[in-house]
Amino acid sequence: ELIVGAKSDPLFGPVIAFGMGGVAVEVFNDVAIGLPPLNMALAKNLMEQTKIFTLLKGYRNMPGINIKELQFFLYKFSYLLADFPQIKEIDINPLAADENNIAIVDAKVVFDQQIIKNPPKPYAHLAILPYAKEYESHITIGGGQKVFLRPIMAEDEPRHREFLNNLSEDSKRFRFFGAAENFDAKFARHFTQIDYERETAIIAEIEINGKKTTIAAARLIEEEPNVTAEFAIVVADAWQNKGLGKKITDHVIHIARQQGLKKIYLSFLNDNYAIKALVKKEGFKITENEDSGYAELNLG
Q: Which residues are CB-contacts of 62 (< 8 A; sequence separation ≥ 6)?
């Protein structure tokens, strides 16, 4: 027996609770908290924060439950909260689960009458915006290679870690302003589990022998909301000098304008000649000192 619930917080909006359910829920207090929307990776991460997850996987002679089905349930539940701000509270207890199915045994829903009368803009009630599908784009670079540009997702963590670790020492130094060791999962999660309202991260993806591979990443990090954002970009060494850097930069600048930003900027090391040439073509105003430089683009 499990519990899945949500309550709308005045500051964070809807907050999801998941854990051990049944009549003893208050006794064991085995509950994890998450913010919608969840994807499949974040749903599993929420489950893994509870003690009961050990039993859910199977323990001794007890079969585990259908983990994928429960992940998908939490994913759908989170989008119910995202799509319907009128929901003030939901309490599903118990949610019965076995090795085959899950079933809602008892549930209660409370609605916010004020929001029913005056609904907010889509997703305005959420602390974290959902995946921005409108930022997807298909491009073609040198040699006729087709590339898919899209926002980064939490599921990209293993592939993004591989992308970063495969960069040359110079590419790592240019991107992170110093010598960099191998990047671990915790470091990669910092770049893949983001809030789309405050940060936009676009990756360039191709398919090689049936395997999806990240070959570039660019991001905007808002410094002053709706006014200024820092820009950063890195391209895999094998895919440099093929026009990819300019096309992903053009895409990110277009997004910045859509978001109403007034200015974007980046800092760079003085021996990073490729980025200096790129931002100069894009119309950035460049200032250099002894070791580093600064480039700024006013978006009008």
A: 55
Each residue's pLDDT tens digit, 31-54 = 999 999 998 888 999 999 999 999
Whether residue 158 is preceded by a cis peptide bond, meaning omega within 30 degrees of 0, is no
Sign of CA dihedral 221, 129, 75, 103: positive
User: Alpha-carbon distance 84 to 115, whole Å?
Assistant: 10
DSSP code, position 37: P
Element (H, E) at 150: strand 145-151
Q: Residue 247 has which token pair?
A: 């096309």
What are the pLDDT digits (tens) for 94-146? 999 999 999 999 999 999 999 999 988 888 898 888 888 999 999 999 889 99
Q: In the beta sheet, which residues pair with residue 224?
A: 228
Residue 242 · residue 145 · CB < 8 Å? yes
